Amino acid sequence: MHPFRLLALLSLILLVAGCAQNPQNLRLSVEPPKPVASVAGGPGVALETVDRREDKALGRLENRDQPAAPITSAQDMAYVLKLAAGETLQRAGFSAELWSDSASPRLLIEITELEHVITADIPRKMETRVTLNARAWRGNERITAKASTRRDSRIANAPGKERNAAEIEKALADALRELFDQRLVDFLAGRG
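The chain above was modelled as a monomer; its predicted structure follows.
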């Protein structure tokens, strides 16, 4: 084979391989948001978090001519959420305590949706969706709450691990901020 043709073929192979996305395994650290509402000297709140999603992947990096590359977490997402939710409780004026089915007040937060998708289009579309459901109990009373967030952006190049982690962390923080509204804070504090 002529050297020029060989060089052109190798260049084409490298170009196609360079466009393919590889799986990413992320380490997340959600910055606890400042809640919408807070109290002074609120009671201790028993806290539990659960990841209710069937598919534990965080999302996918789509490829033009190959299967999508998965984005996964190196950590248990319920634990990641528990750390951020515990600090958010503290910022709202409460102290986080160990979960007990009989504790009052207590707060259960569930991840029901967490999806981060990067399309193969140019420019690439990055979409992150998070939905958190919460149930809180105080004595014989119970309330439910739901927070959903969606973040969209367009980017020229495929994002690396750090960018994907940052987008997911921001979406989780936005959902937590929305969840800790005046109604939930007042209920946990015994003011409503």
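The domain at 3-189 is CATH 3.40.50.10610 (Rossmann fold).
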